[in-house]
Amino acid sequence: MLGLLTACQPTEEAESIANHTDIHMVMDAWHHAASVADSTTYFGTMASEESIFIGTDETERWTTSEFKSWSRRYFQRASAWTFIPVPGERHIRSLGDVAWLDEKLDSEHMGRCRGTAILIFDHGRNSWKIDHYTLSFAVPNEAVDGLLDDIEMLDTGSTKIDVP
User: Which of 24, 40, 65, 102 fits as disulfide partner to 49, beta carbons 3.0 to 4.6 Å?
Assistant: First the structure.
């Protein structure tokens, strides 16, 4: 009898796969909410008003409430922004009520990007919530030197003169 009851219990691996399915659904819904300018769903997916979103610019580190304020004008359009997860390129790990992931994203505006996230399980809402998200550009190694030169010129406000 004990063997039968034990055999019917979900394994840790099965629970993890179920959690990962839920996390995929949360992330897909979050990205979709931005693409259809659904700010209620988008910001409702964040864990709290103190959760963090880090954008691609070095100045872009916002709490949820700051990000709401900054992005309000974008959510008044038909689409705030669109990032489409690349199939098979989201990698999730979880331990208990915490999960972390990285994902590749495609954007018509920004090209290939990457996102990383930390999610926490909200027992009161029985769902995963994003507590920290970072969006970054995927820069090919061959383009790094030229990009660094461009960034340096922007930072210094100077123009680069190539001397033969």
Answer: 65
CATH topology of domain 11-156: Nuclear Transport Factor 2; Chain: A, (3.10.450)
Q: What is the pLDDT along the chain (164 residues), one digit of tens a residue?
A: 444 444 444 444 444 556 799 999 999 999 999 999 999 999 999 999 999 999 999 999 999 999 999 999 999 999 999 999 999 999 999 999 999 999 999 999 999 999 999 999 999 999 999 999 999 988 777 877 777 777 777 777 765 555 44
List the chain domain ranges: 11-156
Edge to edge, the sheet with strand 61-63 lists: 61-63, 52-54, 127-137, 111-122, 98-107, 84-95
Question: The whole model's pTM is what?
Answer: 0.80
Phi, psi of 88 (to 5 degrees): 80, 5
